[in-house]
Specification:
Order of helices and strands: HHHHH
Shape: elongated
Helix content: 40-55%
Largest sheet: none
Number of strands: 0
Radius of gyration: 19 Å
Strand content: under 5%
Structural class: mainly alpha
Number of helices: 5
């Protein structure tokens, strides 16, 4: 190492370039976590009209998305053990060890596919088991929370995130995370 601090492509010191980061207030974290809980409750409630077993399967799939995020992406994240936009960075160390280096690209893709399956799961059964008007209303109830959460994350969290290896970060690869040699 030659003693120089890590720099962005523009030559600014990384600590100056990252001043806008970690601005997630408690209200934003509570909003996102409330939307996730609402998604879980809406899915369980709506699927209970079809079958209690389907409600249980949905709850298990939902939990598996959380734990797959922990395992596939959060173990590699800058926010491991720290407050992130969902505050799960503080929880992950209780389940998994930190892994240095960025995650393989397939890990983020696998997690996204898993999430899409859980979003679509209740909708499929709504159209199979209910009249069209009820199915549309139930589908909206199940789709609004996750879509709103994804919009808020992509609009407000991803541009401020220091985890530049994440597939959702618009600054992916622009900021060096180690000192130059």
């Amino acid at each position: 190492m030659n003693g120089r601090a890590a720099q962005t492509e523009e030559g600014k010191p990384m600590h100056e370039a990252c001043e806008k980061y970690e601005e997630w207030g408690t209200g934003f974290i509570l909003l996102l976590n409330s939307l996730m809980l609402l998604w879980l409750l809406a899915g369980v409630w709506v699927l209970s009209f079809s079958s209690i077993l389907l409600s249980g399967v949905f709850a298990a799939l939902f939990a598996s998305v959380i734990f797959s995020a922990f395992y596939l992406t959060c173990r590699h994240c800058y926010y491991y053990g720290k407050k992130c936009y969902l505050a799960i960075g503080l929880v992950v160390p209780y389940f998994f060890e930190k892994v240095e280096g960025p995650p393989a690209p397939w890990r983020g893709t696998l997690w996204m596919v898993h999430t899409i399956i859980v979003i679509a799961f209740p909708v499929v059964f709504m159209f199979r088991d209910h009249a069209m008007a009820h199915a549309i209303a139930y589908s909206i109830a199940c789709l609004v929370p996750p879509v709103t959460a994804m919009f808020l994350v992509s609009r407000y969290s991803c541009p401020r995130c220091k985890h530049t290896a994440c597939i959702s970060n618009p600054d992916r690869g622009k900021v060096e995370t180690t000192a130059t040699t």
